[in-house]
Amino acid sequence: MASAASSSAAPSLAAGSSFGPAFDSLSDVAVVVDPRSGAIRDANPAAQHLLGYPVAVLRTLKITDLHRGQRPALVVFTEEVLHRGRAFTRSLTPLKAGGGELRLEYAGTVLPAADGPLVLLTMADLAARHRRDVDADADGTLRQGIDEWKRVERLFHTIEKENQLILKAAGEGIYGVNADGKTTFVNPAAEALLGWTAEELVGKDMHSLVHHHRADGTPYPNHDCPIYAAFRNGAVQTVAGEVFWRKDGTPLWVEYTSTPIRERGAIIGAVIVFRDVSRRREAEEKLRQALAEVDTLRQRLERENAYLQEEIRIESNHRGIIGRSAAIQKTLRQIDLVAPTDATVLVTGESGTGKELIGRAIHEASARRDRPLIRVNCAAIPRELFESEFFGHVRGAFTGALRDRLGRFELADGGTLFLDEVGEIPLELQGKLLRILQEGQFERVGEERTRSVDVRVIAATNRDLRADVRAGRFREDLYFRLDVFPIHSVPLRERVDDVASLALHFLRHAERKLKTSGLGLSEADVRRLAGYAWPGNVRELQNVIERAAILARNGRLMIDLPGSSIRLPVPGPLAPAGPGVLTEENRRARDRHNLVAALELAGGKVSGPGGAAERLGLRPTTFASRLKVHGLDARTYRDGSRPTR
After folding, report:
1. Element of type H or E holding 539
2. What domains can be seen in the chain, in order of their start residue?
3. What is the mean pLDDT of residues 298-327?
4. Which of 81, 85, 110, 111 is most buried (most C-beta within 10 Å)?
5. DSSP secondary structure string, 404-438?
6. H/E element holding 295?
7. 89-103, 305-319, 330-344, 449-463: which has the minimum mean pLDDT?
8. Measured between alpha carbons, how far is 243 from 621 in angstroms, rounded to an integer?
9. What torsion, rounded to 10 degrees, do the Cα atoms 304, 307, 313, 319 define?
């Protein structure tokens, strides 16, 4: 039925919503349907009795309400009725009030109406009809005799004679059998498909000639044959996936329908219509083989993927975190402890130490791993867009808001939100962040509706938030809300034992990226790398290794380390010694000295080629943040000027 709405005006053949006394007195179920909207215009009392719905209720329904899940078959049948004027089907099963299945035969007829043709559906109960047929068969059997059988034979001849034009024109094979299974007629298409002539088949037992074995070669007794079943139960039998045997002994894949023939209520035989489905079966078999091959390849890829995932897991230790130093082992233990919970985590440490990697490891080890991990770089968001970026906005909330936009908290609903550089959030917006952390609620910009989300927050910063709290740059209540479970990301200079394994990992990564191979680290290379201070931490090490791979000649790496950076004592040849213990004051003095040395070499230039940030292997934004922490101004180092330290 069409889904478009149509006019509900009454048809011209009756006033109001009733189609008259004749319609109400029909013994069969009768329903009038508007094919444009699918609305049920009227139904007779027989419909109420069979379907279980009051007529008044049926008039409020659509025909699709009675045939849930059968819309395609319903559309095809309706189109056939509208095209031919009348059609029949047994493929539809209406939904009976209170449950239960009905086996019905539908007859559809076009009814003219002022607002367009309607469809009259009559439904015959096949179970009731079968009971009547059985009773009639029993009654006819009592009266049968030689004269009755002769009359049946004459009837088949009459059927064949009256339908001769149809039988000859039909492209499908058609033959008739009487109640004894003897062939009564065969059309030309059946002769061509089976290789037998009509004279060879008529009067013979059809089953023993063309249906004697199954496709696998096992015998096919006639008492198991669906064609003979049509004589016993009086029902139409439709069968697919069987074979008829040609005269030359070759199989013919067919699907067939056996329809009982009745005369005066007694079953006198059947008409069998069959078609050759060999090509379709061959195509289906090829498709099945192709799907099986695809499934085999899918399983193979899944196994290979599982293997690769295991290799990655082994290579990268704990979700990408590489290292065996005591500091890394402590970090991994902290991840294992906090990951199963929903506690807020604050990851601190210098830039380039892998804070985001720690956040990702926590997410992937948590119960939220199947939901998204949304990352927000707070240092890269303009002040005026912070609220929109976090909470979203509605259309028209401000100039340029042309459509509704989801904020990062909504995107992370059910998952994890990673707030990188959380110390850069403006003070005036920290209160709104605190509210969503405490209550899980927020409003989009320009909207009064309060929304709720379930988000786990992992924050990261390279700033000293305690100092920012004392200086009034960061809210103390927000700090304590974030600092539920602190994890410190140790700088590379304090985990010298991991330099070699990290360098080797980055070297393999560089080989894949540069499409090269055969590169290796010598003992001298490892000693040089372990003796360097790494002000840019792991990120700087990755850059140095990739640059060395690009400059490599004859498989030998060309490791280029900035000469101005402070070096740690060179370790022994086999087991590098750990770094010395520095006080916080000494560490800060050394870091400040590093920043100043880089500015002096770059002439006060921060970003770009040859800039101080590049020399230290840092991002310009990170370098600027460190200058701010140490109270340095890059402009004072331009033009050869140098402040007094």
Report:
1. helix 537-551
2. 21-130 (3.30.450.20), 144-276 (3.30.450.20), 326-489 (3.40.50.300), 491-580 (1.10.8.60), 584-640 (no CATH)
3. 62
4. 81
5. -EE-HHHHTTTSEEEEETGGGS-HHHHHHHHHHHH
6. helix 278-315
7. 305-319
8. 78
9. 30
